[in-house]
Specification:
mainly alpha; elongated
Length: 255
């Protein structure tokens, strides 16, 4: 075998090895990309599902439930090609289609969750932040129209304000029930200040008026509780008085 043939065979072998390595690399990258896309879609599906099921009932409307169902369906259908054997996912897709077909008549089963303390207020705020993030990204990806996204982002800000109104109101009422007018005054004052700082406080005038009335009531209670207590006559005073005049002095001298 001539040196030329040997050289050609060696070069061909090297080229084949490089091609195999490249193909393997492409296949591996393709697998990783599919896994990344699937994980991302599953994460967005999970977030939308959590919001649809866990958002407090006082914030969940049929329109919002319908929107979240649409997003769940979108992500479920995109996940399915990466998980074709997932029968549970297929059943969920059918269920979502039936729910969406109901339109504004869609059932809302979310129970109300009173926002009575700071941990609960933070939990709901994080949920609304998650909703805001999903809507922003969906608008960027073209999943929902820009105008619809703007409408819902405005609604999310309104819901966040509702959370603050409920939180400060409940906080103040609890303080009053516990005979802590100073703490109640602080809660009502914070609620009123929060509403005054809103870019458009007009929709919240009734709530602001209520906070101001509650604040005035709490202020009156604080002033009342800070009045000096009139000294009550003691048994000693009563005894001395019963002796009359200077008799107690005489009694003290002769005793």
């Amino acid at each position: 075998m001539s040196p030329l043939v040997i050289t050609i065979l060696i070069v061909s072998g090297i080229v084949i090895l490089i091609a195999i390595a490249y193909i393997n690399h492409m296949v591996e990258n393709n697998k990783l990309e599919k896994a990344r896309i699937k994980a991302d879609l599953n994460d967005r599906l999970r977030r939308c599902t959590d919001l649809a099921e866990a958002l407090p009932g006082q914030l969940m409307t049929p329109a919002l439930k319908l929107l979240l169902s649409r997003l769940q369906l979108h992500f479920s259908e995109r996940v399915l090609p990466y998980d074709k054997g997932n029968n549970a996912l297929k059943a969920h897709i059918e269920e979502l289609r039936k729910m969406i077909a109901q339109g504004e008549s869609i059932t809302v089963n979310n129970p109300p969750q009173p926002i009575i303390n700071e941990p609960k207020a933070k939990e709901v705020r994080f949920q609304l932040e998650s909703l805001h993030g999903q809507l922003t990204r969906c608008a960027k990806d073209g999943i929902i129209p820009t105008n619809e996204a703007k409408h819902w982002l405005k609604e999310v800000r309104h819901m966040l304000t509702q959370v603050h109104i409920e939180f400060f109101g409940n906080l103040g009422q609890q303080a009053l029930q516990q005979n802590q007018p100073g703490q109640a005054r602080l809660a009502f004052e914070r609620g009123a200040q929060y509403l005054r700082k809103q870019p458009d406080p007009t929709p919240y005038q009734n709530a602001l008026k209520k906070f101001e009335e509650q604040l005035a009531r709490a202020n009156a209670m604080v002033l009342e509780s800070s009045k000096p207590v009139t000294e009550q006559p003691s048994e000693l005073d009563a005894g001395l008085e019963s002796l009359g005049g200077d008799e107690w002095k005489k009694k003290n001298i002769y005793d």
